[in-house]
Specification:
Distance between the termini: 17 Å
Order of helices and strands: EHHEHHEHHEEHEEHHHHHHHHEEHHHHHH
Helix content: 40-55%
Strand order of the largest sheet: 4-6-7
Structural class: mainly alpha
Shape: elongated
Largest sheet: 3 strands, antiparallel
Number of helices: 21
Number of strands: 9
Radius of gyration: 26 Å
């Protein structure tokens, strides 16, 4: 976990200042505290005052004194404007499926607060304060994960957020699911009553899509580093060449990610007795899945970096509509459209899928046996024993799943709202399937680590592994037995996947080896 850096007390200050994903990470793993800076509070107050002046002038404002979507030509009298917002939240609370986990829900609320703090939404300060109270008390509205097409904001899931703020629907509070009104009372709070534009401002926005994308960034960063570690372990165990990772070779290509990946593998394999043992072998070239680790892992790193820029920019953007610029100017746009997030997530899906694909190929290489050093399937007695035959099949199955899941969601669209939303982003689905891909790749990398580590433990006895791989082997050997014969593999595979997911594989290496 990366600690919050805004305050020595661990409270994240929300203002107009650009926040990086590292500032938000802790909310994905544990409850946190937030506050508005004085300038943010003033911006919210000023925006609300501007809205009141605009309404008093008698102009038509979409979703404030008009209906929504195809009903925007219907005028709403002042006496019904509060009811309009309440009806909007209730009618749009139409999500289905399992609810988002606590981390995603917290981050959705923080991102929504960040949008309000910019001062273009017109909500009262009371709405922002209610969000702060929910975050600080860790009152988490139950938000179903399906139902948004990422167009006019993540409407359905954000409506479930709004439902909690007004004391309706269910929330997760103090390890229980309970009615929102009960949790609000237990926390000593009161439900808010929505006023003009406030329901619309809560449900307009890309916060759900962006929260999923931020989760994907942290998972992806861990996977990119783990992939270099697993690749290095396989290079060593398969008696492949370390020399191909030397920096002077990769400086000839102008891709920073490639140079970083090559450098990681080169440093991880430093002082390897196993590598030194075959310095004079007659193997000319290794398979692409080994020789091209920097090229494939590096390309994924480049795409990851591009996606991170897009996602951070979105997190700090205004995604409301309409936008209040002053007491005389209000503009409509499509800032709630999540196309940028959808495409960034699709980029991540493709790049991380390739990490899994090349990992499985390295595992497959071991299955054929290597020279006279490693028997087929990394089994002591091939034929009597099947070794890792089916572990590789499992990895292959997951890679094949990812090929389907990596099809871009952003190139799909389905018209909604009676044609008013005629091109949608599908960003929430892009996010959910990206995370599914990443979970598959965690399993794929775990299998590679298992196979390569077992090959080293069984068949390179008496030879010292490198500084970096020794650290990984030590971690694995504390949790699984690497040298026993045929046995059910699934428990060990799950254990190693847990080590990958938690970041413990990466942590074991960075204590001794610099990783980029």
């Amino acid at each position: 976990m990366i600690p919050l850096i805004n305050s020595p007390m661990g409270t994240l200050s929300i203002s107009k200042t650009f926040l990086h994903t590292e500032d938000l990470q802790s909310f994905l793993v544990a409850p946190g505290k937030v506050r508005l800076t004085p300038d943010a509070r003033q911006a919210i107050k000023k925006s609300h005052q501007n809205l009141k002046v605009l309404l008093a002038s008698g102009i038509h404002i979409y979703g404030v004194n008009t209906g929504f979507g195809k009903l925007s030509k219907v005028s709403i009298p002042e006496s019904d404007q509060k009811q309009l917002q309440l009806n909007l939240v209730r009618s749009h609370s139409a999500g289905v499926g399992k609810p988002f986990d606590s981390g995603i829900t917290r981050l959705i609320m923080v991102l929504k607060l960040m949008t309000f703090a910019q001062g273009y939404s017109g909500v009262r300060l009371a709405v922002a304060k209610q969000l702060i109270e929910f975050i600080n008390h860790d009152i988490l509205p139950v938000i179903p994960r399906q139902g948004s097409v990422g167009a006019s904001g993540d409407l359905a899931p954000l409506a479930h957020l709004a439902l909690g703020l007004i004391g309706e629907g269910n929330v997760h509070f103090q390890d229980r699911i309970m009615p929102a009104l009960v949790a609000i009372k237990e926390a000593g709070l009161t439900p808010i009553v929505l006023e003009a534009k406030e329901g619309l401002s809560i449900i307009n926005g890309t916060q759900v899509s962006t929260a999923l994308a931020i989760r994907a960034l942290f998972t992806g960063d861990n996977l990119l580093k783990t992939a270099d570690i697993a690749g290095a372990l396989s290079v060593e165990a398969s008696l492949a060449s370390r020399n191909i990772f030397e920096s002077k070779i990769h400086k000839l290509k102008k891709h920073k990610g490639q140079l970083q990946s090559a450098g990681n593998v080169w440093r991880i394999l430093d002082k390897s007795g196993i590598v030194d043992s075959h310095a004079d072998c007659d193997r000319i070239q290794d398979p692409y899945s080994f020789r091209c680790i920097p090229h494939v892992h590096g390309a994924s790193r480049e795409l990851f970096r591009s996606a991170k820029t897009i996602i951070e920019n979105e997190a700090n953007s205004i995604s409301d509509n309409p936008l209040i610029f002053s007491d005389t100017e209000i503009r409509s746009s499509g800032h709630f459209h999540a196309e940028a997030v959808a495409q960034a997530l699709d980029i991540l899906s493709i790049s991380i899928s390739e990490i899994g694909a090349i990992s499985e190929r390295r595992t497959h290489y071991f299955m054929k046996g290597i020279d006279n050093k490693i028997p087929m399937f990394v089994a002591h007695n091939p034929g009597l024993e099947s070794g890792f035959m089916m572990a590789q099949v499992t990895a292959a199955a997951l890679v094949s799943e990812n090929k389907t899941l990596a099809h871009p969601a952003s190139v799909d669209s389905i018209t909604t709202s009676a044609g008013a939303e005629d091109l949608v982003s599908m960003a929430p689905w892009a996010g959910r399937k990206c995370l599914r891909i990443m979970d598959n790749v965690i399993q794929i990398l775990a299998i590679e680590l298992y196979v390569a580590a077992t090959a080293t433990a069984k068949f390179h006895k008496g030879l010292l592994p490198s500084i970096g791989t020794k650290k990984v082997l030590n971690v694995l050997q504390r949790h699984v037995r690497l040298s026993k014969g045929d046995h059910p593999l699934y428990e060990d595979m799950a254990t190693i996947a847990g080590l990958v997911r938690s970041g413990k594989i990466v942590d074991s290496v960075i204590k001794s080896v610099k990783l980029e």
